[in-house]
Design goal:
Blueprint: E1 3-9, E2 17-24, E3 29-37, H1 54-62, H2 64-73, H3 79-93, H4 98-103, H5 106-114, H6 123-140, H7 147-150, H8 155-163, H9 170-184, H10 207-226
Antiparallel strand pairs: 1-2, 2-3
Length: 248
Amino acid sequence: MTVLDRARVCCPSDDSGIFEHVFGGRSHQPRTVVLYPRPMSATTPPQLPFTGNDEADRLLVEEPLALLIGFLLDQQITVQQAFTGPLELKRRLGSLDARVIADMDPAELEATFRQRPAIHRFPASMARRTAELCRAIADDYDGRAEAVWIDARDGKDLERRLLGLPGIGEMKARTLIGILVKRFGVQPPGWEDVIPRHPTLADVDSAEALAAYQAQKRAYKAQLRAEGRSYDPSGMSSDDADGGSTTA
């Protein structure tokens, strides 16, 4: 069925998940696709408090592609800057559509990233990586970012799917799994084997928790420097290794 229009709605009071109502076909009748399936006991967050901007934080919940793009951008800039990026990109493009972004002229997409204020401190490379991520979503998941986790058979399969996305290394994949499990109740069989055992962004549920998390991360890096060791974000993809990530 050809998708003609999409309207995403966040239903924090509904115990069955966050839904995407997809309208298409001759009858233009809606069908419902679960974006973040979860157990009845879980509570859908109205937002993910990563930026201090309510609109940006809500977008991370309402549009799965925004969450993935935020993780991709999360290197060599702050968490707040990285996860505000999807909202700024949506404002400039009019929507976040994986196929549209993947098919954009590379120079046009780079110019969109460079427009002041720049979406990232490295607009050219991040525009390219965003296009690569969106191409993978468009080609492998029919343009539906949520299909990455909805269709996962188990925890290992979910991890494999995330690792298959451009710009998502092991550390980012594990943190994403933590967010899906802890914040959205996405719990495929065996999720316990792939969830992080150390504090990550998945444990952040408030502005105060984010501040404490970032302070802890700075202290950890300072300790490593004092000991003459460098911070090793183990498991990052080769393209992420130059920048480090704030999601560990």
